[in-house]
Amino acid sequence: MPSASELCWWIITLVCLYASCHVQSGEAQNPKEVILLDSKAQQTELEWISYPPNGWEEISGLDENYTPIRTYQVCQVMEPNQNNWLRTNWIEKGDAQRIFVELKFTLRDCNSLPGVVGACKETFNLYYQETDSEVGRSLRETQYVKIDTIAADESFTQGDLGERKMKLNTEVRIIGPLSRRGFYLAFQDVGACIALVSVKVYYKKCWSIIENLATFPDTVTGSEFSSLVEVEGVCVNDAEEEADNSPKMHCSAEGEWLVPIGKCICKAGFHQKGDACEPCGRGFYKSSSQDLQCSRCPAHSFNDREGSWRCDCEDGYYRALSDPPSVACTSKSSRFCLSGSAVFTREESHVVLCERESVVKDVNVSRK
């Protein structure tokens, strides 16, 4: 029968295997995750609460860069009726309602341990406790809510050590909805041989985005798996909401933006370029937000500024006040037809509207 020290040596060896084979590759953080706790990233002692003191033990290893990693192990399989607890430090949840707990661990195959089959287990239990503040270093089992019993998909044997096989298990559990400011996690060992290699706690959010010329802010996901959080967008600079079509998006439980509704459009004098509205250049104009692009100034008109919604007539040229900005300016001596037999004749500061050569009425004119 193996001694307790031999069992611990097996676990430590596997932890070192994990450090050399897995940590060196690194794990990119999911951009949708907000990390609340990552034990693998902490190089100093974790100093979690272990009860009784001879149960869970904090051990350290080195990755390929000789950076310390902290893990916990327990292997009290020689005696029955084990009840070893490990509790994290207090975790402030921020704006989260739904928390993800990712556990990476190794677990010894009980059948590979002669003489301990009756006492050995191949599961452990995960708990949590909600609080508004830290509660000190006491650990009261009755105050914890069970999340789940955690079992290994793969367990290791002594032969795996000789072959340098790393059977690392990853399990993710979800807590929520949460209503207090923070919480503790706790792990209950009932007689297994476990190395808790890493504990990561996080929540998901939809990160800020610009869609259809509207900005949508960082948004925490809802409390349920099927939740869709509706978010109203804010138009970017120099844009306005399209009539009766306000921009909205929905943040899914997985941290993805879905179902875009409505949009913003660039104001008069501005046109869209990428996710922004830029002013029309000199010599160009855009008279309405409904227009997509800036247009070159009509004949005999100009502007010497950016962001114009119209162009001014050159000296000696005019257009009627009722004319749209797209109409060219004309000189006071010119004649032209508007429609049918109606004709404009420019005289001084007025345009005389004529029909069949007889004067009908005067129409004010402008250089603008």
From TrEMBL:
- Which Gene Ontology molecular function entries are recorded, alphabetically? ATP binding; transmembrane-ephrin receptor activity
Out of the domains of life, which is the source? Eukaryota
**Which Enzyme Commission number(s) are on file for it?**
2.7.10.1
Record domain Eph LBD: where: 33-211
Catalytic activity, per the record?
L-tyrosyl-[protein] + ATP = O-phospho-L-tyrosyl-[protein] + ADP + H(+)
* SUPFAM superfamilies with a match to the protein in the record: Galactose-binding domain-like (SSF49785), Growth factor receptor domain (SSF57184)
Q: Where in the cell is it found?
A: Membrane
Q: Which UniProt keywords apply?
A: ATP-binding, Glycoprotein, Kinase, Membrane, Nucleotide-binding, Receptor, Repeat, Signal, Transferase, Transmembrane, Transmembrane helix, Tyrosine-protein kinase
BP-aspect Gene Ontology terms = axon guidance
The signal sequence is 1-28
Q: Membrane topology for this entry?
A: Single-pass membrane protein
An example GO CC term for this entry is: dendrite
* Annotated Pfam families: Ephrin_CRD (PF25599), Ephrin_lbd (PF01404), Ephrin_rec_like (PF07699)
- The molecule here is called receptor protein-tyrosine kinase
Q: Which organism is it from?
A: Mugilogobius chulae (yellowstripe goby)
